[in-house]
Amino acid sequence: MRxxxxxxxxxxxxxxxxxxSLKVMDxxxxxxxxxxxxxxxxxxxLTDGDVRRFILAARSLDEPVTAAMNAHPVTLPADSTPEDAxxxxxxxxxxxIPLVDEAGRLTDAVWWLDLxxxxxxxxEQVGLPVVVMAGGAGTRLSxxxxxxPKPLMPIGERTILELIMQRFGAHGCGPFYLSVNYKAELIxxxxxxxxxxxxxxxxxxxxxxxxxxxLSLLRDRIDTTFFLTNCDIVVDADYADILKHHRDxxxxxxxxxxxxxxxxxxxxxxxAEGGALVRITEKPQFDFLVSTGFYVIExxxxxDIADDVFVHVTxxxxxxxxxxxxxxxxxxxxxxxxxxxxxxxxxxxxxxxGRG
Length: 356
Hints:
Blueprint: H1 3-10, E1 11-12, H2 18-28, E2 32-36, E3 42-47, H3 48-56, E4 76-77, H4 82-92, E5 96-100, E6 106-111, H5 112-115, E7 130-133, E8 154-155, E9 158-159, H6 160-170, E10 176-180, H7 184-194, E11 200-204, E12 226-230, E13 233-235, H8 239-249, E14 253-263, E15 267-271, E16 277-282, E17 285-297, H9 313-322, E18 327-332, E19 337-339, H10 343-353
Parallel strand pairs: 1-2, 4-5, 7-10, 7-12, 10-11, 14-18
Antiparallel strand pairs: 2-3, 5-6, 8-9, 12-17, 13-19, 14-17, 15-16
């Protein structure tokens, strides 16, 4: 890709909103955007971490990107050598360095993977157990799930369940507790046959218990903070940072939420009494934080889940909120969350992960 094309992919105007800049970040896959004026004068740099801190400060994605960006990013002169860039990247632990001329105009940018063969660093090891809710029938993926249970849906040459365990395994997590019900024997047989490198223990629901009911069966098996995930999602994020945020915030539960934008493909009418039109907004866009189905949970939560009762995680969370107990959110970008729970998102996942 030529320099100009590559920069066009990640450069946004200072008039762009934080939400629009986040969309550019997701579409480029670089988790970073460069903010520059029409003359390519570099004004700042925005990362997914900047956006997360912005949201946690209760700021709006409709604000201009200049409100969230780093206005003083690390840069290098346009004629810098790869050795210069390597030294700065390692010393500052950054993934992208803009190159600017004497007037401060953006001429190029260097990414970590341009200079190194591997990602920036090995994931920090957190070593927590992981509960995977793998017992659902996956009716939204019928007729595929009439044959295969949802955890065994293939994404490329691997199953979604293997991808989930691989991401957690890279952070040193384990053991994996699989809560199973629908086609449980197929899941057991498959994992025994592929000889996965992780310790797996099974929790068998005799009947569907919702997204949290089977956790009561783990009351005497988990005595530390743990991760809980649905079996149809993959979150590409720094799990150690998620855990740090959870502990620093003093949460009993932290849910990982994705920043999603939804559009209405019509002109939306606002009316007054008698049918008078107040205004019409053409194809409005709305930003929401939506739960991904990934949680960090304290072990004492298990004591609050009754035996053999159908209950969802959201029921537990709402109960805590009503009692004034601390539940937190860790935002990730839309591009960091892959959901195969419905037919359309399954095909999207095949595109995004199946080729990796």
